[in-house]
Amino acid sequence: MNKELEGRTPLACLYHWERTRPDAVHLIQPVGGGEVVEYRWKQILDEVRRMAAHLRSLALPPQSQIALLGKNSAHWMMADWAIWMAGHVTVPLYPTLNAETVRYILSHSDSKLLFVGKLDDWAAMQGGVPAQMPLIRLPLAPDAGGETWNAIIARTAPLPGEPDRRLDEMATIVYTSGSTGQPKGVMQSFASFSLCGTLLQQLFPLSVEDRMLSYLPLAHVAERLVVQNNSTYHGFQVYFAESQASFVADLRRARPTLFFSVPRLWTKFQLAVCDKLPLKKQKILFRIPVLGKRVKRKILEQLGLQCVRYAFTGAAPLPEPTVAWYRGLGLELLEAYGMSENFAYSHFTRPGDAKIGYVGPPNPGVECRIGEMGEILVKSPAQMMGYYKAPEATAEALTSDGYFRTGDMGEIDADGRLRITGRVKELFKTSKGKYVAPVPIENKLGAHPRLEVVCVGGANQAATFALALLSEDSRRHLANGGDRAEIEAELAALMQEVNATLDPHEELQFIAVVKEVWSIDNGFLTPTMKVRRNVVEKHYEPSQAAWYRARKPVLWEAG
């Protein structure tokens, strides 16, 4: 870590790299057909300065909100920096939102202008953009109207000097992904970016020699912290993914030394390997001393993960067998825990000190304790400035001594490591009047390779039940004429096995296998692939009475 950048803003970091490493490649962007464009610090800052000058020419009120809608790209980051350099505030929007949510965020945030970037379905969002809102199209964006980035920077002189911002100024308003209810606007200052950019170095030493692949939404604080902000402070290279179909090729191109993913994708990687090399055969090969090492190395190379020094997983618990499988390959998955309200700076598992099921001790400068109802309370140096236009909600979110009420339930072991045990707000009562925490049950079921996503319900019912989406491998197996009775028997046995570990009032009456694939696009999952519990419950509520009457351990085609 360059000492010169401690306590400085991200803009100060940009000027530092512009001066000291002007010809170093920082961003690598696929543009289709296997081609990529490399952006060096000198070119990046030239484009950012020109766009910042244009934004200033619009004479918007100081610190105006400017929205940024698009998939991850080199110009997404450049637009973010240009907004800051011009003296304004970035409002990132997820690239999978529907028109109604786009309309709400643009209105609620008082955004004055919208950058539109690379998108898969602009038509589904366009209706949410006011007709009078000015648009600027980034390279790779659909034809959304407005001016293009390239046209603007071609005619605009670069902003001179090194205009900076105060650390206590608001840098961004991040709208929560909305797993329950309407998203809230989390205000974060430049101080949060600065603290995270320097304090994480104490846990994971980074340098200009590192590489990352950016593919999880930059609108989410985790990707913005781990990838964009870390690369801004430490100067390492960032590669971007072209599409879902090219993801493995993108990963192999990047050969990341740092890699961050979410449980669902870690599981998909594992299933893809096991589809080609079954677990039984892996176990035999791994036991052969020399050959076993070669096979493990080959698997990591096929995934593009052979150079990874630090591998992170977050957003939800990862099944223990999956963690063990990766560790068997020599890849230590480090669990991370954080929220938009603390810029994802809360807990990280330390290398060599992992304990399965735990997210590690508090990060440097973070305080954590367990409050009423087992709720996790966190005080982070990257704590939010508050919720935009919601002082009452801000006050409710904090304790009298300044701890953030996470809404998660947890426990802390003797070594200070935190374990997430559920959600306070997701507790529900059965008709027997006893509370059930669904998340621990979902984790036990979700560890089975037949299942991809699970949602446990049963509020005001005599017994609980589980909605389950089969894994992609299992769905393909059935589509190719596979034996459904075999899967049904496995799920029935799984339910019996899980029930044996539960209290009587928690025991599942049945597993309902859904026919509709839960995805980000249809609104069942958040952009970080968490289940939108309220959406799922509402969708399947009309079927519940018939399921209970059926009295079968496994039901098919639910929904």
Outline the structure in words.
The protein is α/β, with parallel strands linked by helices and 559 residues long. The chain folds into three domains: 3-239, Rossmann fold; 258-306 and 308-366 and 377-424, 3-Layer(aba) Sandwich (Rossmann fold); 427-558, 2-Layer Sandwich (GMP Synthetase, Chain A, domain 3), CATH 3.30.300. 35% of the residues lie in helices and 22% in strands. The protein contains 19 helices and 26 strands. Strands 4-3-5-6-7 form a five-stranded parallel β-sheet, sandwiched between helices. Strands 2-1-11-10 form a four-stranded mixed β-sheet, with helices on both faces. β16 and β17 form a beta hairpin. The chain is globular. The N and C termini lie far apart (53 Å). The model has no long low-confidence stretch (mean pLDDT 90).
Instruction: Find the CATH topology of the largest domain.
Output: Rossmann fold
Strand tally is: 26
Number of domains: 3
Distance between the termini: 53 Å
Number of helices: 19
Across the major sheet, the strand order is 4-3-5-6-7
Shape: globular
Tell me the CATH architecture of the largest domain. Answer: 3-Layer(aba) Sandwich
Share of helical residues: 25-40%
Reported for the largest beta sheet, the result is: 5 strands, parallel
Low-confidence stretches: none
Structural classification: alpha/beta
Radius of gyration: 24 Å
Mean pLDDT across every amino acid position: 90
**Proportion of strand residues:** 15-25%
Q: What's the CATH first level of the largest domain?
A: Alpha Beta
